[in-house]
Design a protein that fits this description.
This protein is an alpha/beta fold and 478 residues long. The chain is 39% helix and 21% strand. The longest helix is centred in the first third of the chain and has 30 residues.
Length: 478
């Protein structure tokens, strides 16, 4: 099969735009370090065009029946499923993850379109009993307007899909800036919607210098809402910019997910799930299990089981089926791994497996396991966003919960136990937006996805994700 990378474009007002004198930047294959294509940046005129197109399209799109909006989203979802194999190759080329992971992400994106297509028909208001017989009180949910959304490189399909589907299903129009490192995956979503008959201007895709594009769009009076998936530092900056216009925000930010493995856990099953979850996408996942707190009675057995499975992982180019972990996405992540592991060594951490860059082209790093690592090490405080697992023993449940809650992050957390009392204590005590008990499955279209503390504001997916794109209006009639 011939494999080639498509030329990325801008998508504005229903038109696909090439460079044509615009500033460009290279898109790099992280498995080889080679340039795949030149990505055009949107000029200020392009951003103004996108803003005007989204504003012009909004009144008609909000007036489009939810049933019709849903039908279009379902059509696009079916096109994504038909094209999943081809799009997955584009994703692997630009992002690095194994192609089977990329395909599963595309299918999850199609499911997200489908779910929002149905939930958009159920943006229910309510009737509140009036103060007297001639008084009627109605509560309505209406689309907020034009949305500016920003998506990262680690999940270049499912993260844009949540923002696109949520905005469109509610009746909003959208300007999306995906990552410049992974443009073609988001453009494939736009292509499916375009081919399904999406009216011009309802969705626009732009690229550019992230800080410049975000600041310009957020400051525009046209934009009513901002949705960002990114780091906590960027999220704070975006929140400050949005606050100048009192614009509503949904912020899904960084994490440092703790895992509690208790004395009654099935260690072998826990190791199976946790190794698969930790090293998926080379650990570049905001909800990846990272800080492991294992009951001291099972600590040695868990470390042994975990390391055995890690040592069986095959790392290499994601286009080859035999590899189950691809490269890191960019040189920045390689430098971060080197810095964090050097600090961990100075803090006395024990290296159980990996710990080094893999020689050769591309940005490959060994799956790494550290044990007995001090809470003062950078790795225990800074999200590694890479293939690093950190395992420590604990003696009591209170100690485990206290150490799990120690950081300002609160996106996802996990636990493995069969004890119903411990489950209830974890459900009450863990400071997190999402808690998986005996499962890592905390991300699905029908349930809210979001964090607490410095891991974000608001949720995507679930009914909460749809309502985030709506204003609430009270109508009181006599």
């Amino acid at each position: 099969m011939s494999i080639s990378y498509e030329q990325p474009r801008l998508y504005i007002d229903g038109q696909w735009l090439l460079g044509d004198g615009r500033r460009v930047e290279p898109v790099i294959d992280p498995a080889t370090g080679h340039t795949l294509a030149e990505l055009p940046h949107a000029s200020q005129a392009d951003l103004d065009h996108a803003l005007a197109a989204a504003a012009r399209a909004f009144p008609t799109w909000r007036a489009t029946a939810p049933l019709e909006r849903g039908s279009l989203l379902r059509h696009a979802a079916n096109l994504l499923r038909e094209r999943a194999d081809a799009i997955a190759i584009q994703t692997t080329l630009e992002q690095g993850k194994p192609v089977r992971e990329a395909k599963l992400e595309l299918l999850a994106s199609a499911d997200t379109f489908d779910w929002y297509a149905e939930e958009g028909r159920r943006t229910y208001g309510r009737i509140v009993p009036g103060r007297h017989i001639g008084h009627r009180i109605s509560v309505l949910h209406e689309p907020v307007g034009v949305v500016a959304a920003f998506a990262p490189w680690n999940f270049p399909a499912v993260t844009p899909a949540r923002k696109i589907a949520g905005a469109l299903a509610s009746g909003c129009t959208l300007i999306l800036k995906p990552s410049e490192e992974t443009p073609n995956t988001a453009l494939a979503l736009a292509r499916a919607l375009h081919d399904a008959g999406l009216p011009a201007g309802v969705l626009n895709i732009v690229f550019g210098v992230p800080s410049e594009v975000s600041e310009y769009l957020i400051a525009s009076p046209v934009v009513a809402k901002i949705s960002l998936t990114g780091s906590t530092a960027v999220g704070k900056l975006v929140a400050q910019q949005a606050a100048r216009g009192l614009k509503r925000t949904t912020l899904e930010l960084g994490g440092h997910a703790p895992v509690i493995v208790w004395a009654d856990a099935d260690v072998e099953r826990a190791a199976d799930l946790l190794v698969a979850g930790k090293y998926r996408n080379a650990g570049q996942i905001c909800i990846a299990p990272t800080r492991f707190y294992v009951h001291e009675s099972r600590y040695a057995a868990f470390v042994q089981a975990f390391v055995q499975r890690v040592n069986r992982l095959q790392v290499g180019n994601g286009l080859e089926e035999r590899h189950n972990m691809g490269p890191l996405a960019n040189p920045r992540r390689v430098a971060a791994m080197d810095r964090l592991l050097g600090d961990a060594a100075r803090h006395g951490a024990r290296l159980q497996s990996g710990g080094e860059r893999i020689d050769g082209p591309g940005f490959f790093w060994q799956p790494t396991v550290l044990s007995d690592i001090s809470e003062s090490a950078l790795l225990m405080n800074e999200e590694p966003f890479g293939p690093l697992a950190l395992i420590n023993p604990v003696a009591t449940l209170d100690e485990a919960i206290t150490r799990a809650n120690r950081l300002p992050y609160g996106l996802a957390a996990y636990a493995f136990t069969q004890d119903s009392g411990i489950r209830m204590a974890l459900s009450r005590g863990m400071e997190t937006g999402m808690l998986g008990i005996n499962t890592l499955n905390v991300s699905m279209p029908e349930a809210p996805f979001g964090g607490v503390k410095e891991s974000g504001l608001g949720s995507e997916c679930g009914m909460e994700g749809l309502q985030a794109y709506c204003n609430t209006k009270l109508v009181s009639e006599e």
